[in-house]
Input
Amino acid sequence: MRKENQTLVNEFIFLGLSQDFQTEILLFILFLLIYLLTIFGNLLIIFLIFMDSRLHTPMYFFLRNLSFADLCFSTSIVPQVLVHFLAKKKTISFLRCMTQIIVFLLVGCTECALLAVMSYDRYVAVCKPLHYSTIMTQQVCFQLAIGSWASGALVSMVDTAFTFHLPYRGQNIINHYFCEPPALLKLASADTYSTEMAIFSMGVVILLAPVSLILISYGNIISTVIRMQSVEGRLKAFSTCGSHLIVVVLFYGSGIFTYMRPNSKATKERDKMISVFYTVVTPMLNPVIYSLRNKDVKGALRKLAGRKSSQKQ
Output
């Protein structure tokens, strides 16, 4: 009995995004460029927020957490994918696969919670501006950030425990480019219904619940903004909240598509493309959206550039 419960598979083989070598070389260049932009953009956001005192506000405190989560999120997947683009056999050990899922879910689910917290911060700023400083205190901000990381850790532990509680025997070829629970469950040598229900339940907690909070927050924000008499104030509110909404739609849309629908026995190419979108592309877009659409961040960047040029002179 004990022997039957042991996992016989000690490594997994990925089919990857393409079987054509020339296509993989092109993908390697593309993914490397995206990864470098992701690292540079998110590190720049973190550095600017740390250096500029004008950005020492709750919104940018949460943005700094989001940028750090994006760095970890991308780094947990992309470097391995880059190596596999140049390798004939795309393998990963059972332990490394488990580690990748833990880290990927931890930072990914934390990002879900952070986006909800950021929507609440914007709700307080727009709808209750006179009480903003008393509501969003430093202590409250720390508690919300810690709660976001704790919720990510909880979902990661539950999903990982249920995924690797199943036995994996014989079949070890994953039609995917990294270890992700929906793709891994297709190889399980036992019934996956309870695990799928556990992952779905965690998806309700970390995907649907935050989305509901975001919709409520932005419903109140839009209602308040429409009633504003100042055109300048209305434009500023829409500009600040617009960048956040773009991130929310991109990240939650692809995440809900992957984790909140029945898990089929075969992985479609469309599923892999959607995974690329939220694991590779979105972490790069976040700093671009926030920096290009945000006057405060652009001002901090110009201030830093001006300081550098004056030092050279």
